[in-house]
């Protein structure tokens, strides 16, 4: 039996990773460590919460002593680190929260892993889940590869870039066995409705305006969250130490085109006159430092580990929209309270 720590497992991507590992690997005990910030939600994991190889631990990765003790207590063999502050707009409002969790929290985990493993790294692995935003912005052409220089533009991406550098530095300096993946925009069930796709699904359902930043011609590369979880599983088990792998959907969309498709599908699902939901589109003030375009070259993970997306964007959007329509209690629960104040400040 191996003890695996997954951080941020109550969040969007983390919950899909936890579910995959708990249900697939009986020889692992999965410890899900999450501070349950506004973005963490144990409702995401009700189906597996009673599994005998699963334990939830509420705790904060910025708490150095707590993290050190936790590693000593459970003797983790591997770490999959997803806990983070993840929303660009919030990082513009409060950069320090991103420095604390994304940088200091990551270094706390690195120190605890290094201390526990005491330079005997056999069978150990520290997996750091990162983002394509560390590479900055592309122009109209080109793709991010694993050798694209880091050039982060938002406090969020700067904090993720910093954490990536620390992970690499621990590999170089102390020999810590690590892998890093840099993934493009995820979408799917359990996505907190502050991000583009779930926010717009929520607003269409509720006949609220759809706030498109700037001219809407910004481009993102979308990947279904379960395909990200599959890639994480593969890299955790078969990736080479001290390597980075880019993960992407081969699926670029300009925001405004994506929003129009979303509106069309929602019109059909909600029985609305075609064009009705698109009337909610409203162009609003742009995001400061807004990256024009992200697009991933995922050939390395494809060629070396045989990974490619299994779900098309058409399928993924249908699954996602159906999930939100069937889980409106989940949506209502997470959009009350603190989120209502955030929404008012950000959009109204
Ligand atoms: P999320 O915001 O949905 O979830 C983050 C989770 O981390 C939450 O459960 C939260 O409670 C927890 N958390 C936050 N601060 C914590 C702390 N101090 N201690 C312990 N737990 C804490 O994020 P997500 O979208 O699921 O992203 C997960 C990871 O994947 C992040 O590292 C993010 O940078 C990365 N990533 C996300 C995307 C994407 O499109 N969402 C793409 C590429 C990479
Ligand atoms: O690329 C990976 C990254 O993708 C992850 O690292 C981040 O954690 C994740 O939040 C996401 O970052 P983005 O900033 O690309 O995602 P977001 O959903 O916030 O925005 C997607 C695009 O939509 C972006 O161009 C901004 C735009 N947008 C977003 C919101 C919330 C709008 O036009 N209106 C909005 O209200």
Layout of helices and strands, plus pairs?
Elements: E1 2-7, H1 12-24, E2 28-34, E3 54-58, H2 64-74, E4 78-81, H3 88-93, H4 95-117, E5 125-131, H5 155-174, E6 178-183, E7 185-187, H6 196-205, E8 210-213, E9 219-224, H7 225-238, E10 243-247, E11 252-254, H8 255-270, E12 281-284, H9 299-305, H10 313-326, H11 328-334, H12 338-347
Helix pairs in contact: 1-7, 2-4, 4-5, 6-8, 8-10
The structure holds nicotinamide-adenine-dinucleotide and 2'deoxy-thymidine-5'-diphospho-alpha-D-glucose.
The site of 2'deoxy-thymidine-5'-diphospho-alpha-D-glucose has 19 residues, from helix 6 and strand 8.
CATH superfamily: NAD(P)-binding Rossmann-like Domain
The CATH class, by name, is: Alpha Beta
Point out poorly predicted stretches.
Answer: none
Bound molecules: nicotinamide-adenine-dinucleotide, 2'deoxy-thymidine-5'-diphospho-alpha-D-glucose
Q: Tell me the distance between the termini.
A: 51 Å
Q: How many domains in all? A: 1
Q: Please work out how many helical segments DSSP would assign.
A: 12
Arithmetic mean pLDDT: 97
Strand content: 15-25%
What class, by secondary structure content?
alpha/beta
Instruction: Identify the CATH architecture.
Output: 3-Layer(aba) Sandwich
* Count of DSSP strands: 12
